[in-house]
Every structure is written in C-alpha cells, then in structure tokens.
Amino acid sequence: MPNTYSQLLVHLIFAVQGRQNLISNSWKEELFKYITGIVTNKKQRLLCINGTGDHIHILIGLRPDIAVSDLVRDIKSNSTNFINTRKFARGNFNWQTGYGAFTYSNSQIDRVVKYILNQEKHHTKKTFKEEYVEFLNKFSINFEEKYLFDWL
C-alpha cells in the first residue's frame, strides 16, 4: 500500500484450551520463535512475546492490510500444528476460542513490553482470570463472564 502510514499497536492475549497448564518452559522459547516467524511472514512486526503455562501475550505493530482476527487465526492454527507435530504437549494441544486484543499508543510501548516480559512474576500475585477481567474493565469492554474463556 504505497503512501499508507500507520502506527497500530495491538496487545494480543489468548489461552490454552481449558486453561490447562501445558506450555512448558522446556519448549516455550521454541514456540515463541515459531510464532515470531508466523507474524514476520505475515509482514507484521512482533515487538514482544511471553506468557505462562496457560496463556500468552504478544505485542504487535500491525499493518492496516490484515485483520486482527485473521492474524490471530493464523497464529493459533499454525502454532497448534507446530506443538502437536513435535509432540510437545501430552495429548492434543489447542488454543481456546477467542482472544483479547487491546490497542496502545507509541508512548506506552515500554510499559507494555515490561508488563509482557514480567508475566511469570506478575502471575505469582494474580491469576490469569483476574488479569484478563482487569484488562476488559480497564478498556471499558462490556462482557458476560459466562462467555469468557473456559475457566478450570
């Protein structure tokens, strides 16, 4: 798209199906590198990725030529195949349906990156459910809890 300029920063959050603690530290970095490749191949800019055993956070500089839903679909589908092909998780690995997508301004990048990089420490004090509901409230998103992720 010549002469199209944008600055769209999107913070994505999605969870393992059933909120199972399946993302192991032993292969987490390999997964994150693979997801980085997916995003890069879609000509998007991955700024930060991290997570815990049951969910991940990704900060992306999004170009306006792709829908967020299409990018998330491709990340989830391809990374699921990657995990299952390598048999990283016992049984069949899947991501839950749905995701969170939150936008930020350029001045907030450092704060969001620090937040994402400190996930392990952050979740010693707060559950994923508490964190996710906090994001929805912070961004004034109306929701019904029964339609959120499946909580264990």
Could you please describe the fold and organization of this structure?
It is a single chain. The chain has five helices and four strands, in the order E-H-E-E-H-E-H-H-H. Strand 2 and strand 3 form a beta hairpin. With about 150 residues, the chain is α+β, with helices and mostly antiparallel strands. It has a four-stranded antiparallel beta sheet, with helices on both faces. About 35% of the residues lie in helices and about 20% in strands. The mean pLDDT is about 90.
Outline the secondary-structure elements.
Elements: E1 8-15, H1 28-41, E2 45-52, E3 55-62, H2 68-85, E4 100-104, H3 109-117, H4 119-122, H5 128-138
Antiparallel strand pairs: 1-3, 1-4, 2-3
Helix pairs in contact: 1-2
Report strand %: 15-25%
* Span between termini: 44 Å
Rg, please?
Answer: 15 Å
CATH H-level superfamily: Transposase IS200-like
In the CATH scheme, the class would be: Alpha Beta
* Overall number of strands: 4
Average pLDDT metric? 92
Write the H/E string, N to C. EHEEHEHHH
Determine the fraction of residues in helical runs and give it as a percent range.
25-40%
Give the biggest sheet.
4 strands, antiparallel
